[in-house]
C-alpha cells in the first residue's frame, strides 16, 4: 500500500497518494506503534504529499514530528535524521521562512560533510539547497561561492559515474540533471540546456 502511494506520488496523482498514505499511516500506528521506523517513514511520505499539494503548513507540522521522533530514537547524527532535517528545511523554504531553512541546512551540511564526505551526492544536494537559502535571503556572494563548489564537484562526480556506471545509467543521468541545474544557477544557460537535452534524449 505504501509502495502504491509512492507510485501515485511519482505519477503526480497527489490526491490519491495522500489518501492512501493516510490509511497506511493509521494502520502502521495501530500495528507497529507511533515510533516504529516504518510508521515514521509513512509520516514523512505523507508530509511530502502535503508539500506537493501546496499544504506547506501541514507538511511542516508533520515533518517536525518526524524529526523529533527520529532524534529521540536514532540520534542527531543518523542519516535518516539528517534527511528529515533537510525535508523540514524545504518546508520552511516553502513557507518563506528562509532564515530557519538556512540554519537547518547549515547544520545538515556540516554533519553530512563529516559523515559522508564533501563529494557525496547527498552532501552536494544539501550544499545546493543551502545556496538557494542564501539566494532567498539576498546573500548573493555566498550563493555564488557555494554554487561554484557544487558545480565543480558535480562535474567530477559525473565523470566518475560515467566511468563506473556508463553514460546511460539512471544515476548518471540524475547527476547530469543536477549539473544542468548548477549551470542554470550560475547563469550558464546554454550549457544547462545542452545537458538537459542529452538527459531527455537518453
From TrEMBL:
| Regions crossing the membrane | none
Q: What InterPro entries does the entry give?
A: NLR-like, TPR-like_helical_dom_sf
Q: What is this protein called?
A: Kinesin light chain
Q: Which organism is it from?
A: Mycena metata
